[in-house]
Prior knowledge:
This protein has 18 helices and two strands.
Amino acid sequence: MVRRLVSRINTESIKIFTKTTGASEKVAKFYLQQHPDISDAINAFFDSPLDLTKMEQPKEETKQKKGTQSPQIIKDTFNKYQINGVLRDDGLSSFLKELGMSEDGYINYVLSYAGNTKSFAIFKEDNIEAIIKKIPFTGKYADDVKEFYEETIPKEYHRFLMFIHSQLKAMIYELNKENNCLEKITEKELNKSFCTPQEGRIELIDMVNDVLNDILPSSMSSSPVNSLFWNFVKTVKKRLSVTKDEFSFIVDFLKEFPTVSSMKLSQEQIEEKLYLPQLYQDFLEYINKPQDKENH
């Protein structure tokens, strides 16, 4: 009678299997788990040697399946909370909560940008489709948006900030319209009206700090240079708004001048900064000529 080798997954059985077959310990453990004794395990190996790529396939298939399901989950969640084809306000809050995303910070700005919405944080079906195409979702939705914010947005800061500026102008116009603070001024005229204050009217300059705190890295939004610049715009230039181009250059400016001391330049050096909008050049001149502050 032929003696059969009883399978026990231990160092000795693994050693016998690997020595006999030349396979790895990982393969040995796999076959020893599938068969009641080591002889059957060895025979099974020679009958059908294990393909390690196939051995790991179920995990990869699960990951791919989850990623494939994510767009449909997002669409289903949109359909669950939309009203008359529009997702906004309380419906948007519920949508984000169900997908594990926060309403605070950059989330709504990034989703609006990715979805190319006409109005901030108001989504229609085509906006959701655009978001799905723009952001690779894996099922961990908050992490997916964060990755897009940290890796893609920095490469598109100008475009992103120009988009945010347009959204803010439209939002401000609608808010002032609701509050009857526009009189007969049109949105186009409002965009040009930088220095004409009106009691009760919301201005971009009043919102800019909160917005930049949400969409910029804290190292930039909390920079003394950032606060000095916007204070200059409001109190020295007496501007109530900035152009799209001026708004979109704030990141480049903060990168080039991360500290107050880094802005100490000669007039000649300032004049070489031709790529900057005039407002930033004026700011640099103001910082470097403190004795002239009262004349501005």
